[in-house]
Sequence to fold (486 residues):
Amino acid sequence: MSQAVADIGLIGLAVMGENLVLNMERNGFTVAVFNRTTSKVDSFVAGRGKDKKFVACHSIEALVASIKRPRKVMLMVKAGEVVDNFINQLLPHLEKGDIVIDGGNSHYPDSNRRSAELEAKGILFVGAGVSGGEEGALNGPSIMPGGSEAAWPEIKGIFQKIAAKVDGGVPCCDWVGPAGSGHFVKMVHNGIEYGDMQLICEGYHMLKSVGGLLNAEIGATFAEYNKGELDSFLTEITAEIFKKKDDETGKDLIDVILDAAGQKGTGKWTATVALELGIPVTLIGEAVFARCISAQKNDRVRAAKILSGPLVTVFGDKAKFISDIERALYCSKLVSYAQGFELMRAAAKDFGWKLNYGGVALMWRGGCIIRSKFLGKIKEAFDKDASLANLLLDPFFAEVMFSGQDSWRKIVASAAMNGIPIPAMSTALSYYDGYRTERLPANLLQAQRDFFGAHTYERTDKPRGEFFHTNWTGRGGSTSSTTYFV
Fold:
């Protein structure tokens, strides 16, 4: 039987798992490691893990036996059935009070279920979103843990030690809430990531097509953007991408890469739950659909030969155009974050969670893919008003939108006139205009619904919650449908 010397165990030595355990070991923790393909364990401890504080395990039983009580086992494996399979393998070897941590990209309903099932057996469950990719896992990720709160004192020291640090040492990791809330917050993070990436791509498309910039100029432009309000990880790496040459052809690598995007589903999950909760997370939805239409490459090639659009007119004042794009990107990004936080607020209300939105913004300040300079301003907004209904109502962000909207509107109009698709930037502006409009044409929509289906409507001269039906044609009766909202 193995001696219990490890502070934590980890299953799954793929890119994220391998780098996380190296991070843990570097920060003073002894880690027991196991992989389904056990040769991976041997190659790791003989390679990157050589002469370090790792316990190499060739079975689940040996892994559990090597961990100090209460045992903490972290899964870094593919989401879905694989997670359940490993939990079932672990359970016979665990005792009450032991902790199972799912650090993968699991869907939050699965984490809700696992939390309830394991707590019923006396086992504590943590669904921890981990963001930052390979580099973040190794040097300091953003970690978003939720689930069985009794587990937090046991794992807090490890997670906050290995997490990214901001503001003089504040860790980008704190307790999120119960059940699947940690994975829900990570899902929203990934949805915002989809939106950020799409917005940057649209900025690139406009700079190249309408601005007439060459790749080197576009790279330099994003490098300049990164010195200002758009300072973020994604802006930074975008500038680097435009410097890279293709080893095979010598061309700019960006021009060799096929324009057909992939996706793993977390953006789609965000859009789906937004529809379920009735929250207009329009930008993330458009970002998901933009990937879908990019994947229709063969169809687009055929359509380009049949469907015509306007001739592109290159913008005259290049410096002004670059500045307008910067403002449009900033305003659009703020809409994306506003929608994301509104979705988290709706989920917290629906699921009975208590989420710290300023704390979430802090967790995203460093280590993760969407880490941005202005997340500090988001934290400040929620610190001032924890019940803030929408980020755009905060005085700082309201002023940003007011001062930037002229440039934003010019870019959206220019894209439309030149036939350049910028769905995320356009829908962000539409959302802003819809949100700030006191009276929308939904009164006509309600009249239509009542006309054809007797779905009823409310009146401007009556209290909210009272519903009325009109016999529009004189041929209908007085019976109306039940009023309900989905």
User: Anything to note?
Assistant: Strands lie at 8-11, 31-34, 54-56, 72-75, 99-102, 124-131, 142-147, 165-166, 170-171.
